[in-house]
Structures are given as structure tokens and as C-alpha cells.
Amino acid sequence: MVRLIGHRLLQMLFVFWLFLTMLFFMLHLAPGDITHRFILNPNIPLAARQILIERLGLDQPLHLQYLSYLGNFVRGDLGVSFIQYPRDVTDILWELLPRTLLLFLTATVTAYWLGFITGKFLAWHRGGTFEYSMTVAGVLLFTVFLPWFALMMIWFFSFILGWFPIRGFLTPAVWLGEPYRANTVFAYMIFSSLALAVGVVAVLSATRRIAEPRTARLAMYAGWGALLAVFALYWAFSPIRHLAANIAYHTILPVLTLTLVAYGGVMLLTRSSMLETLQEDYILTARAKGLPERVVRNRHAARNALLPVVTSLVISVAFVIGGGIITETIFAWPGLGRALLEGAIQGDVPLALGALAFLGVIALIGHIVVDIVYMYLDPRIRY
Amino acid sequence: LRALRSSPIPKFKVLALLGALSLLLTACPSPTEEPEVVETPPDDDTPPPAVGVDEPFTFNSGIFEDTTTDNFWAHFDPDLTIWNAYLLNETSCSLYGVEAPTFAVVPDTAAHDWEPAQQDGDVWFVEVEIREDAVWSDGEPVTANDFVFTFNAVRDFSMAGNWISYWHPEDPEDPEATAVVNVEAVEDKTVRIEFNNQPGLAFWPHDVGVNGAIQAEHFWDEVVEGAATADDIYNASGAGAPSCGSVVFEEREAGAFASVSRNDTWHRIGEQVRHFDDGTVEVDGTLYGGPGEGEVTAEYTIGPFFEDEVFTLYGAQDSAVLALRQGEVDYLYNPLGMERGLQDPVLDDPDLEAISNPAFGIRYMAYNFRKAPMNDKAFRQALSTVIDREFMADSVLGGVAFPLFQMMPPGNVAWYDEEQSQRQQEGYVGIDEFERLERAVGILREAGYSWQQEPAVTRDDDGEPVDIQAGSGLTMPDGQPVPDLELLTPGPGYDPLRATYGVWIERWAQELGIPLRANLTGFGVIVDAVFVDPEPDWDLYILGWSLGNPAIPTFYESFFHSRHAIPGGNNAPAFQNAEFDAAVDRFMAAATEEEAYEILWSEVEPILAEELPYTVLFDTPILEFYRRAEVIWPFTETIGGFQFQYGLKDLVRSAQ
To answer: Which of A206, B201, B240, B517 is buried deepest, with most CB atoms within 10 A?
Structure first.
């Protein structure tokens, strides 16, 4: 295992260097740069643009800029943003990360959880009208054009029904004059949700050891109820509860949109994977042994059908930034995807590079995680 | 995991422990300490504002690009965006200001009207008394030292952007250029500004007097003294910085909103303003910029009347428009006006008021004077003649644009000369495509051009023109064939109007026998080719300009003076004309508006109309909307719309 991780890490370093180098030159090859904003202002003299060029280091030959960037990158310095000059890119990315994480982790986890359960159910109850209609719905959601779908969701739920806000992650009127910054509230929300999630898994794991199914189920629900009560009590007495509620309210529509789109794919993937697994001889053997249907479905079929779904999950988590560009732009959600887009459009090379490098690191780590999880899920797999 | 599996401690215990730890961590205070909220006791010495808030209200406005700074220093240089300007521009002040809608120069912090500079040995100077009641929002007086402090910071830290273009510190590489050489405090409330040459209107009162924003010395001196470079100043937080403008910056939540509040100490609150037909402005009974003749065109009291303005960020114009219709915001800032595709449902909305104003800009086609035949006046005149700008605006572009025929747009009523403009339009207006072609052929033929197949108008039996037979094989007067030409045009994704124009110009040029192809390409590609490439090899391009300050059209010098015909300079066509240079230098040096106006329309504009370094094509009006039940402005006709004046924050009132 250690050798595998070490080997993979070396591969990752090389791939990442290649990725970063290609990105650097591709972004610099794009026509135009940030100083165009000065060119197109007739009031600003040429000298002002020259000062800006020198200040941003754009007067250096490209290979020197590259070497300087690489050196700084190794030291953890991603440079300063051109459009938020002279703010550090790292500082901007850390500010935006919780916002992206909250939105996409919530949507991804919900979509995979629901998708896996329904996919499993549909495969097990194959052939009914429900399965056909759900499959069609899944295909529609899987193939829908996300920008159009997101705009339709806003138009219907926000403009026509007025249930949800049209934009953003907070209501200015609620936040005006508040001593807390949004990122503080995001941090509390993420940590408390993580705590709840760990608690839920812990309760699940503990109650599975109880032999008697009815008692186990009761203990599980009691444990989850207690956790939820603690969670609710914590937030009920928190001084930032109204701010967190405001963010949560703004999260509903984008999460719903993302969940629906991701859900279709996961559900179809689980269904087809499960259908394949159900054809296997060991399923027949399990049934022949007289095991209960629930055990055959959950322990023998579903666990083996999980492999492609887990791959898809890890990769999708790794690519949240990429998927976030459209969603974050349409919902005015200021996350990493939006920053990446703005950086690329406005010629803010350090910001675009920083966001893409971050994406690259997460993607590479995601691949290692997939390898490790595979070995855990299927002991036959060895690299 | 293997270790966990083989551990004697049951897995669920470990997980439960982790869960408990996580809950504990969550319950602990966050690393970000809660800021201490300090109650500020009411200051009994602060005089009550002359004008109260009618009904305390919040002006809710929408933006769709984020602001990037709360620091005014940075806003004027590296963070110079229109969105930051909407938020921060009115948090500062200068000696003078321009009063919309006529844009006459009126005192801001100055106690009296502006006066021309006087000579004192080698320098020219002005001494300006500062209003006694001019104070910062924290109650400290605005003094001459604030002007000295700001100018010294701009000069010493080599600040660029608006700082350099408004304060004009001396350029060591061009010491002969007109510049501010010194700013000093004669007295606490009297500032002296020295120039190395006699400043024209554009310098004084406009750039230095009107736009020379200041920052508070008592707030920023520590930051500036401790700064090694301008970046150290730009990196400091602007939160809490006092304002001498109409509003005070309050807060900014990146990616969500920003807000300003009314500056109760602003010295202009309560001033009574009247605008006259002749462009004169009367402020509290004193006339500025003329004798005050004719009808009163606008009359109002200066506010601000709101308690605060909240700028809500929307991800795209679509969602911002939905928010406007839903009543979430009262007004949308948009430097380009509302997109055509979004206008129809908004125009039908009875709750919204639509206002349309001419923009102070142009979209134009430029010729590269470094290459033939673009360097030939006859070629430029012939090509300009076949371009039917009225047809394009009315028919092809469906009325969303208006045709332009000279550099000064008619929307700038103070500087526009209707009579002279009509004369310059002769040959371009009111003639059909057949006559255009025949005239263009005549111009080229007279200049010595010839064709293998001369373009011709085919006529029916009654002699009426019915069709055009395109020319081919156009040869220049020196016998060389006209080479294949490329017209760089922004693509339809960036600007469908200019893309359409490019395609039509290609068609008209080919009818004339000019082998011209429109290349619909990226905006950045054109800017790189035209303004960045040290050896510009382009033929023709279509782009647009926003023309800057409508109160003083300095763009003539910036676009066409030969000193700017350098790589990266604004004179991208490399137009060089000694007669024009002399005229525009006189225009820039003019000490009165009357003198400048005379030079503009008797020399500058006629030369451009004849030489045509640009063929000015069109522009689009700025269409804005606001919720009529919520807010109201004392006038709606103003060049560039409300957004051009940063929303006219000091005039907007609650409609209720």
C-alpha cells in the first residue's frame, strides 16, 4: 500500500508539473491581457499602462515569468490577483473554497445517496411502469442542458412562485451591519454538518453490530434523533443562526438544481451496474444458499455494484470547480468556479492558474483515493 | 483501515469518539473572533443636516460584476473598474465638479468659481480657497494639506491609472509636457497648485480641479508613511476611511453586496440648483458657466435623500432583470444599458420606468495609415461614402442604434454644433445606394484609381437604377493593384451590431471593387493586433470608444495627435497631420470654453471630416429602468444615463 501511494505520488508530481506548465502557456497565449482595460480608456496615458505592466511583471519574457511562477508555486505563493490587485490568490481561493464546498458537497452527497438508493431499487424491481418512468426521467435529467435548466428553475421557483431568492448566497438586508463575515458562518455550517455526518456514520456503524434487527433499527433511529436534537439545539442557541438560516435558504434552489442533474446520472449508473451484478453466479449461489432477499440485495449485489458509482463520486467531487462555473455564474454564487471564469475572461492569469491548479491537485488526489477505495471495496483488486 | 479492523477497540467506538470530537470542535469558538461592536455616542457638535431624509429609505440597486476593493487609492489605479466606481467614486471630493445634466463646472470644496492660472516666473499657478464648511465624514476639516498629501503620494509612489491622468505629476521622461509640478498649502484653507506650462481647460479646471480626488491625510498618513511601494497603500483596508463626498463607504461582502450611507456632513447637502437652456448652472443663487439665459431645464435640491444604498450583486444580467421586475432592487447599474434581448418584457412592465439617453461614445472603423491604400484620403472617402449608416441603423440594426457622422456625438449638447455637423454630413445622408456607388467611383477615379471591370449601376428602360454591377481589379494611382484587405471586426458573440456592420461593409466594398473581407474575430485579438503589436500590420478594424468626460472633449488630442501615433498609443491608425496637431494643441491650451468650441468646429472637426482617420459609424442609446413606485430623479435626460453619473446618488429620492 505504502509503495503504491509513493509510486502514485511520484506520478502525480510529474503529471501536475506538466499540467501546470501547459496551463501557464495556454493562458498566456490567449489574446489580450489585464492591461487592456487601460488601453481602452482614452483618458489614461500610455505611461500609466506601462507602470501597470511593470508592476504586474508582464514586461518580463514569458519563460522568465514561467520560472518565477514555478518557483513561487513551490513555495506556496500563487502570486497576486490582477483583478483584485494586490490581493494574494491563495487568500482569494481560501475565501471562496467554503462557499463552493458547501454547495457542491451538499448537492453531490444528496444526489449520490438518493441516486444509489433508487438505482438499486429500480434494478431489483425491474420491468414495472415505475422503473420505465424513472428511467426516462433519469435520462432527461442526465441529458438536460444545465444553463437552461438552471434558468428555468430560477424562473419557476423564484420568479413565478417566489419561493426562493433569485440570486446569491445571502440577502443583503439581513446581513447589513452584522459583525460577522459570511465565511465565518460558512465555516460553522460546514464544520457542524461534518460533525453531524460523522455522527450519523458512527451511529450506523455501531447499531449494525446489534444482532436483533428490530432493536438495531430502533437504536439507529434513536441515535440519529439524538444527534439531530444536539445539532438543532446547537444552532437554536447560536448567535449566527439567522445568518446561517439565510445562507441555507439561498442554498436550496442551487442544491436542488445540481442534485436533480447529478441524480439522473447516478441513478442510471447504479441501476445498470446493479443489473449486471444480478446476473452473476455468486448472486445465484447466495439465493441458493437461502439467504434472505435483503442480504442478497444489500450485501452481495449492491456492494459489488457500488464500484463504478464510487469512482464516479470521487471524480465528481474532484471536479466540483469545473462543474461550478455554470452553476455559480447563473446563481451568482461566488465560488471557485466563478473566480476561475472571471480570471480567465479578464486576463487575471494568476487567479485562473491558481483555481485550475487547485482543481488539478484535487483531481489527482481523487484518483489516488479511488484506487485505495477500490482495494477496500473489492479485495480482489491489487495494483 | 487494516489497523482499525485488527484493533481490539470496536470500530463503532472509534467512530463515536470522532463524532463527539467533531461536535466539540464545532461548539468551540471559531478562529475568527467576533468583532467587538462599539456603540458610538451621538456627537452633539455635529450640526444637523440642512436637508433631512424625506422618508428614511434604502436605495436598492443591482450590479452584475463584483466590486473588488474598498480602498479608494486602489480603485483609482489597479482596481479601476466601473463597478468599483459606482461604489466608491462619490466617497471622495475635489475642488470642482461638473453638474449634470449640463455638465457645467461648479465648486465642490472650492469656495468660489474657478479662475485661469496666472504666471509666476517659470511656473503657472492657481490659488483656491476651500469652503469653510467642507469637512470629512468624521468631522475633521478638509484642508489644503489633504490636497498636498494626496498629490505627494501620487507622485512619490508613481501611482498610475486615474491618479496619473487626473493629477498629472511631472513625467521625468517628458519634462516638457504640461504637468503639475507642486501643490502646497498657502494657508489651512488655501491650496496653491503650480503647473510648468500654461494649463488649458483640460488641465485646469478639468483634470486637476474637477477630477483630482483627494484622500484624508489624518486617516491615511500612517499607511502612506509606512509604505514602501504603492502596493502597500492599495493593500490597506479602506473600511472606516472618512469621506468628503456625498456618501460614506459602509461595508462590502465579496460576492454578495456592498453598501454606502449618506454623508450627513457633506458640504453640498441642501444646495439649490437650477440649469438653464444656455448651459449655465445656478447654485444657491450664484451663476456658473454663463449668464443664465433661456428656460430652466432642471431644478433640484442636492441630497442625498436616502439613508443608505445597497448594491446587490447578480450573476448575470438575466437574473438582475428578474430581480428588478420582482421589486428586489429599484435600479440596475449597467455601463452599456440593458441588453436588447431583455428589454421587451421590461418595457411592458407597468411598474418600471424606462429612460433612454444617448451614450457619450462612438463605434467606428479605423484605417491603418502605414499601408496603402488606407493612407490615401480618396480611398477612405470613397469607402465612407458607400457605407449607408442611416440604412444600417434604421433597417438592418432595427432601430437599436443611431447613425453617427462625426466624432462629437449629438448627445453632448454643450459641445455639439448642429449647423456644422449638417455640413459635414453632406454626401453621406439622404442618398440611395446607387448614388453612393456612383459618387464613390467618381472619388476614386478622380484620384487616379482604375478598374479592370468598373462598378456600374444598371438601369431599366426608364433610366431608373435597378441593380449594381460590382467592380473588380481595382488598381491604385501608382499602378499597383489594391491588395486583399482585412477588416477586423468583433464577432457576434461580443457585439452583434458591429459584426453585422462588418459584413455589410465587406459587401459594399466589394461592390466598389475593393477586395475587402470582414474577419469576425475575438475582441482581444483585435486589441492585440491594433494596440499591442509593436509592428501593426492590420488594414482596417471596427471598435468603439467611450469618450470620457463630456464636459471637455480631450479625446481629439488623445486619438489623433501625432504624438500618440506610437505602438500602444491611442492614435492607432498613425494619423499624422501637422495642421491638425497645431489645431488640437490650441484646443487643449484654450483658456475658455468659447475659445475651445470655436477651434473645435472651425478647425479640428473639419480636418477630421476631410481626412477621415476614422469612419464614425454609430452608437446605441443607454436604456435604463427603475421602479417608478420606489425612486425618482429630478430629471431623466442626461448623456450616458444615470449610470454615467454613478446613479446620481445625491439626487435620487423616494417616490413615496
So the answer is: B201
The minimum CA-CA distance between B243 and chain A, rounded to whole Å, is 19
Helix (H) or strand (E) holding B486: strand B485-490
Nearest-neighbour CA in chain A from B464: distance (Å): 46
In DSSP terms, B540 is beta-bridged to B367, B487
Contact residues, chain B, for A155 at CB < 8 Å: 322
B134, HSE (Cβ side, Cα atoms, 13 Å): 25
Tell me if A192 and B26 make a contact (CB, 8 A cut-off).
yes
Query: Cα(B564)–Cα(B369) distance, rounded to whole angstroms?
Result: 14
> What distance in Å separates the CA atoms of residue B267 and residue B108, rounded to the nearest whole number?
8
What are A13's three cell numbers? 508530481
Distance from CA of A15 to the nearest CA of B (A): 28
Maximal C-alpha separation, chain B? 109
Q: Are A86 and A77 in contact (CB under 8 A)?
A: no
Q: Pairing mode, if any, of strands B96-99 and B296-301?
A: unpaired
Rounded-to-10 torsion of CA B168, B173, B176, B182: 40
CB contact under 8 A, A184 and B15: no
* Pair type for strands B540-546 and B485-490: parallel
DSSP codes, B13-63: HHHHHHHHHHHHHHHSPPSSPPPPP-PPPP-TTSPPPSS--SS--EEEEEE
Q: B493-502 contacts: CB < 8 A, separation 24 or more?
A: B494/B522, B494/B523, B495/B544, B497/B363, B497/B397, B497/B400, B497/B401, B497/B618, B497/B620, B498/B363, B498/B542, B498/B543, B498/B544, B500/B392, B500/B396, B500/B397, B501/B363, B501/B392, B501/B397, B501/B542, B501/B617, B501/B618, B502/B542
Minimum Cα–Cα distance from A200: chain B residue: B19
Q: List chain A pLDDT tens, one digit each, 383 residues.
A: 778 788 888 888 999 999 999 999 988 887 777 777 677 777 777 777 788 888 888 888 889 999 999 999 988 888 889 888 888 999 999 888 888 888 888 888 889 999 999 999 998 888 888 889 999 999 999 999 988 999 899 989 988 998 998 888 999 999 998 999 999 999 999 999 999 999 999 998 899 888 888 899 999 999 999 999 999 999 999 999 999 999 999 999 999 999 998 899 999 999 999 999 888 898 889 889 988 888 888 888 888 888 888 888 877 776 665 667 888 888 888 888 888 888 888 888 899 999 888 888 888 888 888 788 777 777 776 66
Peptide bond into B304 cis (omega under 30): yes
Q: Which of B243, B75, B231, B227 is nearest to B161 (CA)?
A: B75
Sign of CA dihedral A273, A278, A281, A283: positive
Inspect the interface and report whether the beta carbons of A55 and B160 lie closer than 8 Å: yes
> Cell triple for residue A120?
438499486
Type and span of the H or E element at B422: helix B418-425
Cross-chain residue pair A333–B315, CB shorter than 8 Å: yes
B594 interface with A at CB cutoff 8 Å: no
- A31 and B528 within 8 Å at the Cβ level: the answer is yes
**What is chain A's Cα-based Rg?**
25
- CB contact (8 A) between residue A40 and residue B23: no
Q: Is B453 helix (H, G, I), strand (E, B) or coil?
A: strand
pTM for the model: 0.84
HSE-CB for B579 with a 13 A CA cutoff? 9
